[in-house]
UniProtKB/TrEMBL annotation:
Its biological purpose: Member of the two-component regulatory system BvgS/BvgA. Phosphorylates BvgA via a four-step phosphorelay in response to environmental signals.
Transmembrane segments: 21-40, 46-66, 78-96, 102-119, 126-147
Major enzyme class: transferase
Entries under Pfam families matching the protein: HATPase_c (PF02518), HisKA (PF00512), PAS_4 (PF08448), PAS_8 (PF13188), PAS_9 (PF13426), Response_reg (PF00072)
PANTHER family attached to this UniProt entry: HISTIDINE KINASE (PTHR45339:SF5), HYBRID SIGNAL TRANSDUCTION HISTIDINE KINASE J (PTHR45339)
SUPFAM superfamilies membership: ATPase domain of HSP90 chaperone/DNA topoisomerase II/histidine kinase, CheY-like, Homodimeric domain of signal transducing histidine kinase, PYP-like sensor domain (PAS domain)
PROSITE patterns: HIS_KIN (PS50109), PAC (PS50113), PAS (PS50112), RESPONSE_REGULATORY (PS50110)
Protein name: Virulence sensor protein BvgS
Reaction catalysed by this enzyme: ATP + protein L-histidine = ADP + protein N-phospho-L-histidine
Chain positions found as 4-aspartylphosphate: D1012
Keywords, in A-Z order: Membrane, Phosphoprotein, Signal, Transmembrane, Transmembrane helix, Two-component regulatory system, Virulence
GO function term, MF aspect, one: phosphorelay sensor kinase activity
Amino acid sequence: MAEPTPNKEARHRLRQSLTRHLLAATAAVAFASALMFLGFGHPLDWVARLSLTTAFLGLGGVAFALRRDAGTGVQGRALPFVIGAAIGLSGVAAAVAGEGLMSPALAVVGVFLCLFTVIGGLRAGILAAAIGVGMLVLLAVAMAFDWLSSAGIAPLTVSPLNLVRPLLTHALVLGIALGGGELLGRTLDRTLRSADERERRFLGLLAVAADAYWEMDGNGRLIRFSAKEELRNFVGLRRHGVDAGMGKLLWETRGVMFDSQVLEAFRSELAARLPMRDVPLRWADVSGRVRHFTLSAEPRTNEASKFAGYWGVLRDITQDVKARQALWSTETRYQDLFRRIPTPLVLHREGRVLDANPAGVALFGFVDLRALLGQDLLPLFEDGPSRERAREHVQRLDGLAIGEGLPETEFTLMPGADRLLTVRVSSVRVDVDGEAATLSIITDDTERRAAEDLVRRSETLLSHLVSTSPDWITLTEFASGRYAMVNPTFLATTGYRAEEVIGRTPSELGLWADATQRDRIYRMLDQHEAVQNFPATMTTRDRRRVSMLVSAARFTIDDIDYQMTSARDVTATEQARREREAILENALVGISFTRDRRIVMTNARFDEMFGWPRGALQNQQQRVLWPSDDAFNWMSDEVGPALSRGEQVDFEVPMMRRDGATFTGRLLAKALDPAQPASGTIWLAEDVTERRLVEQALARARDAAEAANRAKSAFLANTSHEIRTPLNALVGLAQLARTPEVDDRRRLQYIEQICESADTLSAILSDILDLSKIEAGKLIVDRVAFDLRALIGTLKQAYGALADTKGLTLYVSIDDDVPQHVQGDPMRLRQVLTNYLTNALKFTTAGSILLNVQRGAGHRLRFEVIDTGAGMDGAALSMLFLPFSQVDNSITRKVGGTGLGLSICSELAKLMDGTVGVNSEPGKGSAFWVDLPLPAVTAQQLEEHESTSGLDALQGTRVLMVEDNPVNMMIAVALLERWGAIVDQASDGAAALHAIDEAWHAGDPFDIVLMDVQMPGMSGHEVTRRLRQRYDRNTLPIVALTAAALVSEREDAMAAGMNDFLTKPIDADRLRQTLVHVLTQAEAGAER
């Protein structure tokens, strides 16, 4: 077994001590040698002595300085050089003194060598011995060759043989010194090894009782610290040395922490040099970790029994502190848990309470713990079986060992006169202060039992509700979607049986009418775990669709996700809602609902009425519907109180559209709940603007109609007079003409007067018929080419003679730029001008009448009749051109007339795209004018017109005249034959049909038929309808010729298939123009 290694610290300290002693000895020898060379008489010269003295003083100074340097390591490194220098100087001194091997200074070399070997070891000693031997050999050689005499000292007379003995002697001394040094070194090693072994045993024993050993000097500074490597690294100290953290007061050492009171006591004990036991302190390493220690120390003395400081030990109690803290924490937690746990806990011995937590105190009905301590628990149990079981329970527990217990047992407690509690008690034996006791854990089941009863009742109620609910209620597994439960309503609505549904999915049953609705519900359940009132459409077994409001929730039972679904059949409700919405949206009146002066809801008609986009009025203030703040405030002030009283209001006010336009609105309003007016108001709104305008127009029309009725009454009176006057003349003159005694001249005069009366009567009737046609919109104007100047000429000729008879002059003025031939309706132009000229002749008693024709803008011509009559004021002018109106309707008026002429002129002018007017002042005459578009015609157009409208236009035309009246037949045939036409006659409808068919089959068909309408047997309408079954309008034109002049008669004739319509009495020009026009159209149609 290898020997234990010497204690390095002890050897280090010993070497330091020997080095200091050796350096001190060297310094002493060096200083003595310097004094010897300097102070005593010596044969050397002063230079040699001064040199040697200086060398020895330098050596002594260095050795002395090194002796004082400790702990830096310089001593150890410089010592070999110092010893070498000392040996060399000894040799130099011996040589310079001339003494050589005989010099007594060589005696110290052996001493130096011995000590150096002890300090530096055998190798260092051999090296030093070699240096010494070398120096001795040099001295011997110098003495043998007498080199020492050169120093100025008398030479020693020594033979070479005599030098061997001193050389060997000195070498032997060096050898002995080397051996002695080695022997002394080994002895010291053994001593240190033994001390190291003792220290290890000491530290080993110390480690059993403590974790570190330390020493302090008499000033309380730490001079030694010994511990395991881990602890030394933690505290940052080595065994000795200032550089290892030593030399500081303990409480100033890095990381050492005392509590203030502990430190004060510790310093007091140090000052009193008293022993210390288990002084607590904390020590932190450089990373901040903290350990807990206790310090114990005893005063120590030196060899002189004087106080030298303290030595002591440290015990690491970190784990003990942590354990105590954990124990304290555990104990605290236990006590806290014991006090805070809601489960009643009672600690008792033989049934008497030792301790209890607040829950236990409250369970037994005591105010606080002090009132419960020492109480016997048995009387608190219900008398009877429960108390007997409790007594047996306590007796059985007394026989159990600590740690054993009894299973949970049910008891009934009676903590108060009116309280009975059902509890479960489990008990275990525990140790309390060295004695056995019982800890009872009590569970109050009173509420649980009540809750279980409630749950049972709730389950029964829930089962009843599910089975009787009018809604679908289903339970499905969320992952698979398969039904686990359905209620009877589900089965009744869908038409399935329970066994057909359980275990299947809605998709397998085809319940979802729209799969996207199912997917949306599943997504919402994934995100929110609940769905409320989701509208969906389901399909029953018979494929009937039902509207449902679906609510669903997702929950977990036993790690399985379920879905509870409730669905209400709202098919009827939804249908009713759609019907209500349809009624609301299609209502002809606007409907709105308001609350707190804000619009909540409107229908489409309301939005449209006020000009707002659909739905844009919602949440708007009511003020936006009113044209001003004053109007809105009026409504609030006037209508608000009535609404508050629950009354219905109905009023009309101006309202405002979104674009700012106003209209007249009729509003009906009533509070939704008269008992709570603040709940809102229902408004019905109607735009009555047009109605009011219509009513106003109707009022004006009524007034106008009444005026028209009055005018018509006057007209009838006038017309009756105007008709009876010529009619009376006709009858009277006819009777006179039939008198046999009347001569031919007088009879001819009567006949001429009869013709004049007939013309007058015809004119009156024509005016009436024309006005009827105009009012019915059935009067048609022609657009033909005619000679305007010739027409004006005939008017001048006719009315010039009449003017002459009244003493008036008729002038005609036609501007040069007025065309000769124009296109228009010459008959209607003649009718207008005839009315103007007739009126001028009526109302002009003196002076003249001017017919003026001027060229206007474009193709327009102005015809103006200017008279020098009495003129008219504004009131009279306003009545002109109105039907049935005359300036003077009185029976005393100077001139007659029906009052239709100017009205017909105005309407005829409108039909010809013209205008009429009058300029007149009282006393200055009147100027009646008409502006008409009459474009000029070319020569070619005029030629075409004359070819079709001339006297020979009807030459050779085959005409069938159908007329039952012989007179009318005679007149019509005479006119037609005068125009060159070939006329056949038929007196009734049947004859007409036969004649037409016969002519057709003979290859000589009629060109046109003039058909009387009202005939016996078969009417003209019936004849025409039959003919139209075989002949079209172009093949066989038919013109009605009838005394019926009503507009309806014309419509019936045209509907029967006739080409045109003429009234009796026959107007020859009109008849000829109509025949030419119809034949031309028929010919053109046949060519197409």
